[in-house]
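**Sequence with structure:**
===
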Amino acid sequence: MWCSEHEPPTPHLEFERKSSQIFRGDTVKLECDIDGDNWTYTLQCGDKKYNSKDENDFEITVELTQSCKCKVCRGSVCSEWSNAVNLTVSDNPIVTVKPQSSVFTGDTVTLICDVRRSTGRTIYWFKNYNRTKAVSATVTLREVRVSDGGRYSCAVQNKTTQSQGVELTVRERPKPVVRVQPDGRVSRGQTVTLSCDIQQTDVINWRYSWNKDNSEIHVSQSQEYRISSVNESHTGDYSCTGRETGGSRYSHTSDKVTLTVSGKESCDTVYSKLKIKGEVN
């Protein structure tokens, strides 16, 4: 237990290691450990300082090899700096995938090998640990197929260590199905609901575009498009397309579904109007 008139004990800085190597851009967690509470924590890594009230753990993004240390304060009284923790950033290449690592068939994917200080040297690419023919820092895969999926990594000529692998997942581009409720043939005044059903994907959120006679008429996050009190002008061919919210993927366009609205009002519609007017008991 620490008394306020004495200098506080020296904290201990711990590094929570998730893998054997740290790559540029990785996020690491450091914990400034000391007994007691109501501390203000300061972490210093290289020239940067991070402060936290009450929370003793820090998550930082590492760009360079650097040494980190921490101290605690309560009021104007501060501890000595803790032990140093060295964050050594691997000099191995880094692979990035654009636009993203999960795509659909037919998309274009760019693989980039960031070699940092090895600019100008020959680059080797590997797919599922087997060397490919590509030798440039940037590789573009056009109209990808499911078979293009796999683990991609790169290495610099005369260096034995490969980059971390990046998993490219290629799935078949889905095709939505349009469903119509209550039916594709309705009478004037009825309510019609069109739903855009997209199956077998890992996309969490879609943004749905609706077309009528090949012209876009509605875009929303809801897979349903509702038309209240239809009339003859709503007759036409309807289709939909899904686009990933916050991503680059999109579906095929669905097959067209024809909605036909007759000029005669349905019995249900007539009954509802009469009931509203109080003409039906």
